[in-house]
Amino acid sequence: MVAQTRSTERPTKRVGDWVVASALFVLTLPLMILVAVAIRCDGPGPIFVHRRRFAAERQYIALKFRSSPTPVGRFLRYTQIENLPQLVNVFRGEMSCINPRPRCPFFLDW
How far apart are CA 108 and CA 110, in angstroms? Predict the structure, then answer.
């Protein structure tokens, strides 16, 4: 369970998330473009996939690069570059840069 924060800490954390996510987005944008081109050249299918996640007692859709069992996909999973599009989720306020790892709803249902 995510620790409760005081109302005065929440806006500060949100601004911090925006600053960190903006910096990371600008720094990794060329890499993300190269990854998108590599995925498109690797085979048919979408560049992004959507995964349902559950955090802070709410569900959201996490955006990820498609990492199917191909050489490009294996590299993306090994380096965890597949998670870079989740910066969009940080901008939307669905995720935070520093939080417990979100859970798949599948694991919460049992």
Answer: 6
- Token pair for 62: 């996490």
> What is the CB-side half-sphere exposure of residue 42 using CA atoms within 13 A?
21
- 23-78 pLDDT, tens digit per residue, is 999 999 999 999 999 999 998 889 999 988 876 677 888 899 999 889 999 999 99
pTM: 0.75
Q: Domain spans of the chain?
A: 9-108
DSSP for 37-105 reads HHHHHH-SS-SEEEEEEEETTEEEEEEEE---SSHHHHHHHHHTGGGGGGHHHHHHTSS-SSSPPPBPH
